[in-house]
Specification:
Strand content: 15-25%
Radius of gyration: 34 Å
Largest sheet: 9 strands, mixed
Oligomer: single chain
Number of helices: 13
Helix content: 25-40%
Order of helices and strands: HHHHEHEEEEHEEHEEHEEHHEHEHEH
Amino acid sequence: TNRVLAVYPGMARIYHELVEAFLTQRPELDMLDSDAAAQELAIQKALKEPGSVCDLPPAKYAPSPVYLWLYPGNMSACMTMPSPIEDDDSNSVSSGKKKHGKRKQGERIESYDKNHGLMVFRLENLFSFSEFVPVDRAGDDTDEEDAESVADDLDVISVSRDRKAASSSIKFDLDLPASDHDDLRLGEGILLPEWDYRSQGYRENYCCLQPMLGEPDESDGLAVGQLPSHLRADAAKLRRQFSGLKPVRQWLNRQQDGEELDLDNWLHHVADAKAGSDNGEQGFYRTFNNQVRDLSCLILADLSLSTDTWINNDQRVIDVVQDSLQLLCEALAATGDRFSVYGFSSRKRDHVRYHLIKNFNERYSDQIRGRIQHLKPGYYTRMGAAIRQSIKVLSNEKSHQRVLLIVTDGKPNDLDLYEGRYGVEDTRMAIIEAKRAGLQPFCVTIDDDADEYLPYLFGKNGFVVIKDPAQLPKELPRLYVNLTR
């Protein structure tokens, strides 16, 4: 870089502008461990001051690519590198490698084609049977211990060289959508802790939760804000039923104090006094009783990729979740209860997506209906971080009863360590935190295997399993009534 800038000094200003823009795309230091952070600091210093860093500090993983650095174009040294399976005598046949006192016969063969070949045997005395299994050792993911055990069972080990890519089982990551096609990000993200059951402690600022806001438009193919036709009859029925839960405003008579005089009771008192049957002082006031359902409910919906599964010929899990949220919101709007709706998914710990659908201060409207219809499945289920953020939101409510209603279709999981017991333990600790905060967590799931882990997470009476996912839209409002009764 110094050599280029010395030959072309006019590029110095452009180079430094590129460096400033590129540094904003580099990994954040507080999200890296100590070794990786030291390595990243050295890279950033070398970018700002070319030539100031001679050695790159070691780290467990390779750093992110530095696209501004120039690399030599002479690849002749790489072109003359020997093949890893060639030896000094390329025409000789290996006699095998001795290990643990065992020797194997080896051979070199041409590239294997499974569509060609001939096996000759005699039916009257079949001496042996063997199967040729092509294994790409350059890309195979098998543990070496398994490879040794397989090799012990083989009489002849054949080695070939093939430049064609072999089909295999692969692990893949789901890339995030481009910013132009993604939901709107609200802020720079929120750092949250995560519980590590192995050390019995929290990993502080370990997860980055990104609030998201999806605003649909006509290009989604939906009539934005309109309730789907197949839900309108059920929605009208629920509104009538739930309107009975709405508090009734009425006057209370015969009170010791109040806003107005209770003239009826006063006249009865005067008449009784003149008749000589006065029973003493009574309440001569009346007050206005404005009853309020003192509760708040936060609905947290799982939007992971598993909700893209089809449950019948017409519906996916995400379709059922959308219908359920819309019907429940229609019912809650009829009661006047304070409620909010959020959705979540994740791609590892540094990107937990927290979708705002309705907050507590928004009025339920066509805009909220459109956000629900805009929901799309994707990524994984880092449930602990989503629950902890929901605890923060719900704890700001002053209601006497605060319900955290979680709707999911599977157990916690993600691409990293969150798979298995680690994710279950972190989610369980998040539920404990919710109970300590005075909240009432409850889980509604359609997972057939939920009985294996939900009692451990939510307790015996803290969840319900819907056996028929198609019934979720009708069952969810009933469950809400039972929870808030």
